[in-house]
Amino acid sequence: MSAGLAVRGAIGTIGVLVGVYGAALMLQLAGSTLVGVAKWLVAGVILHDFVLAPLTVGAWWLARRYLPAVVSGPLAGGVVVLGSITIMAIPVLVQWRVVPSNPSLLDRDYSMGLLIVAGIVATGVVAWAAELFVRRLGSGTEE
What we know:
Layout: H1 3-26, H2 31-66, H3 69-93, H4 110-139
Helix pairs in contact: 2-3, 3-4
């Protein structure tokens, strides 16, 4: 067995164990909380399949049509990453379930945090596209 296969197996095993632990913790929650979690999971799948995935395909299609080929892959990857992060951040961005008696709950400017993450993702997309461009120049391949 190769070292890579062993590492992947170990990571997979850890992932399964963490998932089982999370499921065990969720089963201890009240029924109404579980219903809320189930609603959010369903909403996440719907948002992904009917909003994020079409936007990603659209961004890739526009990038392939109007931008150099080295940009389309990184741009689509950036849309996937940023879209997924934004979907996960929706509850804190709209501050659902804010409790006035607990001011420490949702006490940050999460929109600024999302903008910072968007900047980091954009920087990664630009760096990835630049690396592909330099690699293509080095190989002497034109678009």
